[in-house]
Amino acid sequence: MKTLILGFAALLATGSAFADTPSTAPVIHDKTGFFVHLDVAKVLSSTDIAQQCGLIPARLDYLDHQGREHVLDYQVDGTGCTNDH
């Protein structure tokens, strides 16, 4: 009887180890505003504003220190204007 229970437990443990479960957590969309605390551990991508002029929408994709992915959409003044000094 103990052998049967141990065999069944081993089968369950093997099945759960090879289960195909998606480990993707939902992306967190941060809110913009003044004094927003960002926990940035690694920048994944950001909008290139070098060739843009004026106020443009920008995006920052990053990982926090717990490994969760965040997206921050914000407005920024482009740096590609030729008449700026």
Question: Can you characterise this structure?
Answer:
This protein has one helix and four strands, in the order αββββ. Strand 3 (53-63) and strand 4 form a beta hairpin. It has one helix at residues 2-17, and strands at 28-30, 42-46, 53-63, 69-79. It is α+β, with helices and mostly antiparallel strands. It starts with a helix and ends in a 6-residue tail after the last strand. The chain has a four-stranded mixed beta sheet, with no helix packed on it.
Largest sheet report: 4 strands, mixed
End-to-end CA span: 84 Å
Structural class: alpha+beta
Strands of the widest sheet, in order across it, are 1-4-3-2
Low-confidence stretches: none
Please tally the β strands and state the result. 4
Radius of gyration: 24 Å
Roughly how much helix do the residues carry, as a percent range?
10-25%
Along the chain, the helix and strand elements come as HEEEE
CATH architecture: Roll
* CATH H-tier superfamily: Protein of unknown function DUF2790
DSSP helix count?
1
CATH class (first level) name: Mainly Beta
Summarize the model shown.
The chain contains one helix and four strands, in the order H-E-E-E-E.
Q: What topology emerges from the helices and strands here?
A:
Layout: H1 2-17, E1 28-30, E2 42-46, E3 53-63, E4 69-79
Parallel strand pairs: 1-4
Antiparallel strand pairs: 2-3, 3-4
